[in-house]
Amino acid sequence: MKEKIQKYGGFMASMVVPNLGAFIAWGLITAMFIATGWIPNERFAALVGPILNYLLPILIGYTAGYMVHGQRGGVMGALATMGTVVGSSIPQLLGAMIMGPLSAWILKKFDEWMEPRMPVGFELLINNFSMGIIGVILVLIGMLLIGPVVTIISNAFGSVVQWLVNIKLLPLVALIIEPAKVLFLNNALNIGVLAPLGAVASQETGRAIHFMLESDPGPGLGLLLAYAVAGKGMLKQSAPGAIIIHFLGGIHEIYFPYVLAHPIMILAMYAGAILANFWWVITGAGLVATPSPGSIFAYIAMTPKGWHFQVLMGVLIGAVASFLVGFLLLKRFPVKEEEETVEEAA
Questions:
Q1: Contact assessment for residue 276 and residue 218, using Cβ atoms and an 8 Å cutoff
Q2: What is the spatial distance between Cα 120 and Cα 269, in angstroms, rounded to a whole number?
Q3: Residues in contact with 262: Cβ distance below 8 Å, sequence separation at least 6, in sequence order
């Protein structure tokens, strides 16, 4: 079971890790130029949505397809991913992780079947038209099936979160929120479920814990620190830069590939988030509104007067718990070098 999980995590990471530079670029653009960023600029901020909704999913789809079936698989993966992007209103990074390798695998099987039957002199014609025809079918499947299915998954996560909130088990919402975040469903959960709940809850006291359940930068900080200290390869080298973008810039998506690269690290996220949530529940802490982006500066700005100790202590608890558990996990189950991971996944 451990080997299967590591192999699956390695494959997932191999789709995302090669594109970390694009994620970092998007994170910097977001942190700097959105309305609540460091240097707001409406024109530059127009890049944020298209990069997240189009470029990043297509890059992941291409990378996944290339891993499965070379250049042809990469083109097919990018093409099929476009169907999921158009077929849903939420960012389709999860859809890309499904359609990228699946579409390339289908094309690979067709090519293997066709190779001994290929008429001499017609190779280029048949290869191009076969990709085009299969591509049309897979784009439509992605648009009509995979995109809506990912939306349904996102809504299901949201329903479970709301149910846990309703039965007064707030600390345990991390069991749903953390894996949903790693699958890039964080914005749908925060904006679609937690922000409306927080708006209602804050009417009585002027603050709500709901605004912190998804946006807490502490657990992600602890995870990245663990990688910076005990990680290996590209993940270790890129962790310090990711810390700046995540904790100071508030772009949480930057740490999601670090969990995908080593799925057991979700336990570190659980430890940090559950303990932070528990602290906030017993102290009655909350924010006045959703911190956007979820940086430490936004947390300070959104904290009610007189509540900074309770709020920031929760962030610290989450960071320390996540770091300690993550450090122990990386020592006990070391992450493989990126090159080895990619080779085994392929």
A1: yes
A2: 56
A3: 6, 9, 13, 329, 330, 333, 335
Give me 205's structure tokens: 């006291």
Which tokens is 4 given? 């299967």
| C-alpha atoms less than 13 angstroms from C-alpha of 288 in its C-beta half-sphere | 11
Q: In this structure, what are the phi and psi dihedrals at residue 287, rounded to the nearest 5 degrees?
A: -110, 165
> pTM of this prediction?
0.77
Task: Identify the bridge partners of residue 287 per DSSP, sorted by sequence position.
Answer: 208
The torsion angles phi and psi of 304, rounded to 5 degrees, stand at -65, 155
pLDDT confidence band for 3 (50 / 70 / 90)? low
What b/e sequence results for 36-64 when a residue is b if at least 16 CB atoms lie within 10 Å of its CB, and e otherwise?
ebeeeeeeebebbeebbbbebbbbbbbbb
Q: Whole-angstrom Cα distance, residue 94 to residue 189?
A: 14
DSSP secondary structure code for residue 184 in this structure: T
Say which residue the tokens 């320390």 belong to: 320
Please report, rounded to a whole number, the percentage of residues in the chain having pLDDT higher than 70: 93
Q: Is 287 helix (H, G, I), strand (E, B) or coil?
A: strand
Q: What residues contact residue 49 under an 8 Å CB cut-off, 6+ apart?
A: none
Bridge partners, 64 (sequence order): none
- Of 221, 262, 316, 272, the C-alpha closest to 8 is 262
With a CB cutoff of 8 Å and minimum separation 6, the contacts of 19 are 56, 59, 60, 63
Q: Which residue has the tokens 């946006």?
A: 215
